[in-house]
Amino acid sequence: MKKSALQQARAAYKPQLPIVLTGGVKIVEGEPTQSADNQADIQKLFPNTYGLPEIRFEKVPATESAEPINVGVILSGGQAPGGHNVISGLFDGIKSINRNSRLYGFLMGPGGLVDHKYKELTADIIDEYRNTGGFDIIGSGRTKLETKEQFDKGLEILRELDIKALVIIGGDDSNTNAAILAEYYKAIGAGVQVIGVPKTIDGDLKNSVIETSFGFDTATKVYSEVIGNIQRDCNSAKKYWHFIKLMGRSASHIALECALQCQPNVCIISEEVEAKNMTLDQVVDEIAEAVVARANDGNNYGVVLIPEGLIEFIPAVKALIAELNDLLAAKAEEFAAVDPEKQREWVIAHLSEANAKTYESLPAGVARQLTLDRDPHGNVQVSLIETEKLLSEMVGKRLEQLAAEGKYKGKYSTMHHFFGYEGRCADPSNFDANYCYALGFTAACLIAAGKTGYMSSLRNLTLAPVNWIAGGIPITMMMNMERRHGEMKPVIRKALVELDGEPFLKFAKHRDEWKRDTCYTYPGPIQYFGPAEVSDQPSLTLVYEQKRRKY
Question: Which residues are CB-neighbours of 111 under 8 A, at least 6 positions away?
Fold first, then answer.
């Protein structure tokens, strides 16, 4: 395989480990934990892995090698920059335990475990993928591990390969599956540990101990580069309003980070829309207000950032979607048999009065998109809803009304963008290269300590990597009960943008200035080399959350 000059240079990069992981380690246990909510329900479902303590590692002199251990690894869900470095760190970590330890990768996600499709990851293979983007070393998939038959089928190959620990690299749903698998294997005495690693570019898998999920830093830097390019073009041509939808179905962390990096004219934060009980028309009015204000200054151009999941945070639409999810889960076959031309009428007839009214008010295209096939978790596929076009069109109609009233005299032309896949497989930033490698190495240490049902954890992430605190938290600590496919299920609670948190407050302090004035900043591409303040800085979200700078 021919490598580019950048690939060759990145292959030589040596990720930095926390000092605590550079010798022997000992476990320091904290207090017993409880789940994020629904404690009695979660404890009942996880009697063998609930209430475990948080743990952190302390450095001790290296000791003689332990027995070799065979480990399996799975990449689950959507891609995120740095996954290959997690596997590299895991590989180096188990080799540091004993050089005869072996690592097996299950192919194309959790389905590879169930279907017994795997390959051994040797040093030659690992070295080809260090510091690279993507999940192509073993592939990823979205098969959910949730049935006894799947668990037992997976256990067959684990026993055949003498695998004593399984590492699942994934987001909130994948790590929920890891917790369920850990509980089952513990309950039957299978002798297989299960460790999770926090992955998602959306940034919604975090808490006080998991400060960020890997991939968020890189993806937001990729998006910010392109947004900056569009802003430069926008400020050059001075004739378009650019509506940019960004990934982030369940939270607006990506949009907020990109706004902090680029200072666009408007950035809608879904969590604020919900908190203020805003209607779709009110969101449109907010954007139209910016268009009018800039037009009054002779600036008929601008940039609007929109989170992918915005439509679900508008309270009336959120209530509609919740009922639609339950309705289409319960009556899937009946709905599928309805003539497509009559499906809208069928839906209206089966909804409550309030939700039927909301559904009927939506444009036909958006209404149809709300009834398309659900994702694997039973939810609307919001990425298929062209929210950026919906809003730009509604803003256009609002401007026509204002013009008729003599309140708007500008010109309004639009361009539309959706940035999603562009950021998922980029070569990791220096931060993610270091963070991911350390997450994998920490997972190896958790395995060596005999832990199961834990998630690899690193803290103090705005400091230099040598000062990061390594350890693990019980996955059940992050869980609550939520409705999925019409039933209450245990899941990891998503972390939403906190409206009283420092990142949002920083944004809120400046957005009125950005709305009217042209305050664009241009972050440029990810910098892998150069001054530390350019190439090694963490996301602004992390900086503001921790209220201190690394440099």
Answer: 117, 141, 143
Provide φ and ψ at 524, rounded to 5°.
Answer: 75, 180
Q: Name which of 299, 256, 331, 329 is nearest 483 in CA terms.
A: 329
Dist. CA 86–CA 444, nearest whole Å:
10
Provide the sign of the torsion angle of the four alpha carbons 349, 354, 358, 361, taken in this order: positive
Overall pTM surpassing 0.85 (yes/no): yes
For 263, other C-beta atoms within 10 Å of its C-beta total 23
**Straight-line distance from the first to the last Cα atom of the chain, in angstroms, rounded to the nearest whole number:** 38
With CA atoms as reference, report the closest residue to 434 among 458, 450, 410: 458
d(CA 242, CA 36): 39
Q: For the stretch 123-156, what's the b/e string if a residue is b when 16 or more beta carbons lie within 10 angstroms of its beta carbon?
A: eebbeebbbbbbbebbbbbbbbbeeeebbeebbe
- CA 250, 254, 257, 262 torsion: positive or negative? negative
Q: Which pairs with CB-CB distance under 8 Å and at least 24 residues apart come from 365-370? A: 366/311, 366/390, 368/343, 368/344, 370/320, 370/321, 370/324
Length of the chain: 551
Cβ neighbours for 216, distance < 8 A, ≥ 6 positions apart:
80, 200, 201, 202, 203, 253, 254, 257, 539, 541
The alpha carbon of residue 287 and the mean position of all alpha carbons in its chain are separated, in whole angstroms, by 27
Three-class SS of 286-328? HHHHHHHHHHHCCCCCEEEEEECCHHHHCHHHHHHHHHHHHHH
349 contact partners, CB below 8 Å, separation of at least 6: 356
CA-angle at 397, arms to 396 and 402, nearest 5°: 95
Q: Which helix (H) or strand (E) holds 282?
A: helix 280-296
Each of the 551 residues of the chain gets a pLDDT tens digit; together they read 688 999 999 999 999 999 999 989 999 999 999 999 999 999 999 999 999 999 999 999 887 678 999 999 999 999 999 999 999 999 999 999 999 999 999 999 999 999 999 999 999 999 999 999 999 999 999 998 889 999 999 999 999 999 999 999 999 999 999 999 999 999 999 999 999 999 999 999 998 889 999 999 999 999 999 999 999 999 999 999 999 999 988 899 999 999 999 999 999 999 999 999 998 999 999 999 999 999 999 999 999 999 999 988 999 988 998 899 889 888 989 998 999 889 999 999 999 999 999 998 887 878 888 887 776 666 777 667 889 998 999 999 999 999 999 999 999 999 999 999 999 999 999 999 999 999 999 999 999 999 999 999 999 999 999 999 999 999 999 999 998 777 899 999 999 999 999 999 999 999 999 999 999 999 999 999 999 988 999 999 999 998 754 43
Q: Which residues of 280-291 are buried (b: 16+ CB within 10 A; e: fewer)?
A: beebbebbbbbb
Report how far residue 362's alpha carbon sits from residue 284's, in angstroms, rounded to the nearest whole number: 14
DSSP conformational letter for 383: G
Residues tagged active-site: 202
Helices 216-237 and 253-262 cross at an angle (nearest 10°) of 50
Residue partners of 487: CB distance under 8 A and separation at least 6: none
538 close to 432: Cβ distance less than 8 angstroms: no
